[in-house]
């Protein structure tokens, strides 16, 4: 089953763009069933996927707001091993 994720941060520029690049590398290297989009948090309103990938502090805020998506929080946006582990966990749920 193909999943759809939104990589987002508050502004939707620097950190989330770097995170999207790393997520796409992990998806490709591991043949994950995941399509990745990129936006600021404002993009959540029209997002029709099932997962949000963001920085750990933003992830905690989204979980507190009880957004209707699986939230994946990443501490180190260039750590592909962390990204891989967390994506595999999220996709397995």
UniProtKB/TrEMBL annotation:
UniProt keyword annotation of Transferase present: yes
Keyword Iron-sulfur (UniProt): no
GO molecular function: protein-N(PI)-phosphohistidine-sugar phosphotransferase activity
Residue ranges of domain PTS EIIB type-2 in the record: 3-93
InterPro entries tied to this protein: PTS_EIIB-like_sf, PTS_EIIB_2, PTS_EIIB_2/3
Keywords assigned: Transferase
Pfam family for this entry, one: PTS_IIB
UniProt-recorded name of the protein: PTS system, Lactose/Cellobiose specific IIB subunit
């Amino acid at each position: 089953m193909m999943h759809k994720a939104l990589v987002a941060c508050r502004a939707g520029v620097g950190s989330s763009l770097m995170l999207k690049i790393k997520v796409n590398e992990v998806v490709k290297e591991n043949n994950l069933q995941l399509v990745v989009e990129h936006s600021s948090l404002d993009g959540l309103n029209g997002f029709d996927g099932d997962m949000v990938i963001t920085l750990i502090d933003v992830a905690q805020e989204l979980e507190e707001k009880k957004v209707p998506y699986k939230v994946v929080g990443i501490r180190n946006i260039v750590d592909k091993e962390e990204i891989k582990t967390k994506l595999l966990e999220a996709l397995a749920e």
